[in-house]
Here is the input.
Amino acid sequence: MSGGSSRTAIHRQTSAGLIYSGVSVPLEDKMPQTPPFPVMYGSNGYNKNLYKAKEEDYEGLYYHENNLVSGSLEALIEHLVPTVAYYPDRTYIFTFLLSSRLFIHPYELMSKVCHLCVEQQRLADPQADKARVRKIAPKFLQLLTEWTETFPYDFRDERMMKSLKELTHRLSTGDELYRKAVQQMTQTLIRKLTTLSQYEEALAKINSSVTDRLTVLKTKPQSIQRDILTICSDPFTLAQQLTHIELERLSYIGPEEFIQALVQKDPLDNDKQRCFSDHKKASNLEAYVEWFNRLSYLVATEICMPVKKKHRARVIEFFIDVARECFNIGNFNSLMAIITGMNMSPVSRLKKTWGKVKTAKFDILEHQMDPSSNFYNYRTALRGATQRSITAHSSREKIVIPFFSLLIKDIYFLNEGCANRLPNGQVNFEKFWELAKQVMEFMTWKKVECPFDRDRKILQYLLTAPVFSEDALYLASYESEGPENNMEKDRWKSLRSSLLNRT
Here is the structure.
């Protein structure tokens, strides 16, 4: 099909969820506008509605009804590189930069892009045509700006920064306007990387301050133990503070982490491990999953800890109300973490406690997050929240925090269900349009600013209060409501013995 293929010349556009600060250097006015990102995809995930600037044979790229569906890796790399008459479509830039790391390390891709730029524009020639450099410079600076803004973590690699500096130096030599644009881009990138390092240090500090409550029943009188109700008794306020934590942690997840998590699970080949052995793979994504687990265990701890049945029932009802407020806000991740904590065996076995609880509201929430039919009810609610977000006028209405484990699972199964390469060795780009569509939706959600006031005391408790381990949860549960059968009695004895040995 190469005879009928076309290389599409597209100008950058501004669209919902895809607003870049960019370089304040004009691109050619003649280049056509690209439709907004959501319009680019049909129901089958193809890249729709591309505008063509010229028809040409482009060896190595294959199209179906004007949609790029496959190509050799080299041809796809060349398709990324601007020329005087061509700038790649922004959805292509995002999709290729996202998915290319399944085949080539980002620093190797950057090296190839720089090489192509220097070769095509003869930038290595001391007598390089200054007028020609001025024509190509804004396009390359725009490409590099989109790369540094959307995938800043790629530039934690010194080899990436070296290539970036070398190319921008060549492009900006002798032109003050371009020098300023390069300086602005570099400063923005360094700020992002510095903020990321500070966030990772803060996370490490929080994690080191969290301890296990395994011995707390024997070593600390119940009367002086803090619990969630002494810190915050208003469900709406707690839901707002949970939303703060969710949005902050979401904001630090790079889009490439989804792909790098897939690489870890299912390497394409031996080279893959080499590609990522020296790269932070998905640390912010992992930290976010750990937060979900912590919240689940915190909920279970708060329920199992009180000695009195009446107090335990009050804590359960409080968390049901918090979960309902999370649902109303659009914070589905905290909602599911709370439900998960309440459904843990040490909590669910407290039948006398649950007998004191009005469970009608909890039943409704469980119905919403019911896993049957591939989480049909949740997916319907998520679509509703997404629609509300698109038409929203306030930050409050824009909040969409997905049930994150299911999002990762969807991406994982999409990756598993389609080969990265076609039988002829071509890259299956049709698959990567669909992957990019899912990740881009997440990118839109993570950019929402939390509109609620921060409460440092509540946030500190949610992030650092010690939680029970699984064994300690069972022990607390048996202490609250005695074992019901021989298996539970044996486990209780074993846990008590273990606790005595540790104290």
